[in-house]
């Protein structure tokens, strides 16, 4: 792993997780200080804001959006500030969901493991947004097919993938496979700031479901 953590012990642990149980334990422990730790100058976690801009530019503000891996609700708050009215959230950690609930940005919040099939109906949402979850030790590229399944045709998947693992983690190959199979259309795939305080970038994906 080469991604800079700025010496943050929670981030260092997050990038070496051994599975969902380990992830749940970490994020329950981290929930109370997560926002302060990441949004301060040292880390400069700008991905939620940039991704919310991309969601609104692609899908507008009137649809139903699923925030997959919603954490403490940073993305939901950014979407709410931009006028999005209907946001549901999924996360593995009850502690993080408690913080997200306190934001008031979400219609519904539920515990879910993104490494297995989602308990969500086909074609349920106008867009899925996923920020900070397609990264070291978290959720692999196979989740993209699940996101596609729950988005209505013509809807959008907007996600960040940590730049260090875009290719080595198989995300690029999976996006290419889904686009070649006429499942997705790549609207844009751009390198964007992720944690600007540590000069860490991501691939910001805007994908249209066919």
Automatic annotation (TrEMBL):
The keyword Methyltransferase applies. GO terms for biological process: methylation. Coiled coil: none annotated. Keywords: Methyltransferase, Transferase. The keyword Transferase applies. It comes from the Bacteria. CDD domains: AdoMet_MTases (cd02440). Gene3D superfamilies: Vaccinia Virus protein VP39. GO terms for molecular function: S-adenosylmethionine-dependent methyltransferase activity. Residues 66-158 form the Methyltransferase type domain. This is Methyltransferase domain-containing protein.
């Amino acid at each position: 792993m080469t991604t800079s953590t700025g010496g943050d012990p929670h981030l260092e642990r997050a990038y070496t997780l051994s599975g969902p149980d380990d992830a749940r334990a970490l994020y329950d422990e981290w929930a109370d200080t997560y926002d302060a730790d990441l949004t301060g100058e040292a880390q400069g976690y700008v991905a939620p804001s940039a991704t919310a801009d991309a969601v609104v530019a692609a899908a507008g503000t009137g649809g139903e959006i699923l925030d997959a891996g919603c954490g403490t609700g940073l993305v939901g708050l950014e979407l709410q500030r931009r006028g999005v009215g209907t946001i549901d959230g999924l996360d593995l950690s009850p502690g993080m969901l408690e913080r997200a609930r306190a934001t008031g940005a979400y219609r519904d919040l539920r515990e879910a493991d993104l490494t297995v099939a989602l308990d969500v109906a086909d074609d349920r949402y106008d867009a899925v947004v996923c920020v900070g979850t397609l990264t070291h030790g978290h959720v692999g590229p196979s989740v993209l097919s699940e996101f596609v399944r729950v988005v209505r045709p013509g809807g959008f998947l907007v996600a960040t993938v940590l730049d260090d693992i875009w290719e080595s983690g198989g995300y690029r190959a999976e996006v290419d496979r889904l686009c070649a199979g006429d499942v997705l259309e790549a609207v844009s795939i751009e390198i964007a700031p992720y944690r600007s305080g540590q000069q860490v970038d991501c691939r910001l994906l805007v994908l249209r479901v066919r």
